[in-house]
Amino acid sequence: MTDELEGLLAKGERAAFHGRPGDGVGPLRKAVEMAHAQGRDDEATAATWLLGVNLGASGRYGSALSALAPLLDDPGDVPTRRLFASLAASTSASVHRQLGRHQAARELDERALELAGEAEEAVFDARLGLAADAVGLADVDTARAELATAATLAAGRVDWWRQRVRLNWVRSEIALLGEDADEAIAAAEKAVVLAEESGAPRHVAKGLLFLGVSQLQAGHAGGAAGTLRRAATLAESLGCLPLLWPSRAMLGAMLAADDSEKAAKPLSGARSAVQSIAEDLPEDLRQGWLGRPDISVLLEG
After folding, report:
1. Residue 256 to residue 284: CA distance in whole angstroms
2. Are 21 and 15 in contact (CB under 8 A)?
3. If exposure means fewest CB atoms within 10 Å of the residue's CB, which of 23, 117, 128, 142 is most exposed?
């Protein structure tokens, strides 16, 4: 691998997990092109997956799915291709979950699990994805079972900071589904602390979003408002539209009960983020996104 290609991949990985996802898009596009030109298929595959991660984290969902699609083609028996096909399926599933397409996400996570083989990180991603899919489908028993399997895989892996953060996100989601607000708060707080210790601001922002929702369910409106403001401010600084719009939407809805003028700015920001996400989607997904009950209520408000 040339030093330049290695540097481009490193920039893309840092942007995905420790910085602004949008900053990784340009370097990774260049890395994909360079790796293909040099006949370095493994590096091209890794760069393509990271490109999909960065695009999805930025809210460029249509572009992310397009970037990842080639990795989902039949990988044959090549271990590296099967690994990244699994990771790409999990990442694509995450995009569909964010769009509210939980059944489509489940099908992709099932494929990810099939492709993962014995690659533990890929198996983890697929299992945790299946747990999150089950939350979206209100299937609590499946969610808990898949979460337990994922947690077993992560047990003792102190180097798996990302996986442990995500475990706590899903723990919080399952607790919210079961109306156990205290457990949801505890899991979200753990996610925030671990993400902060790991220097992962995007993961901090998502943890704060879960924490704010959990505080709201627990009846701690004042604390929830402050937490959601932090989540929105951090998400905006990172250019992470998938975290920005719900943080601002919930904050605006809370403020609207007492002061419509104060609610106007966060609600406007939420609508702008939702529209920006829609602009990057193909027509069929765009219509489904804009037609979601929570999105249509936001846009009509």
Report:
1. 32
2. yes
3. 117
200-225 pLDDT, tens digit each: 999 999 999 999 999 999 999 999 99
State the pLDDT at residue 153: 97
- In words, the CATH class of domain 168-301 is mainly alpha
Distance of alpha carbon 144 from alpha carbon 135, whole angstroms: 9
CB 85 within 8 A of CB 115: yes
* Closest to 190 (Cα-Cα) out of 176, 173, 212, 207: 207
Cβ atoms of 249 and 231 closer than 8 Å = no
SS3 127: helix
Q: Look up residue 71 and give its two tokens.
A: 């990795």
Q: Where do we find the tokens 């539209």? A: 241
Nearest by Cα to 52 from 82, 19, 20, 94: 94
- Quickly list DSSP for 146-199: HHHHHHHHHTT-TT-HHHHHHHHHHHHHHHHHTT-HHHHHHHHHHHHHHHHHTT
Domain borders along the chain are 168-301
What are the tens digits of pLDDT across the range 88-99? 999 999 999 999
Nearest to 91 by CA among 16, 188, 37: 16
What CA dihedral angle connects 58, 17, 122 and 28, to 10 degrees? 60
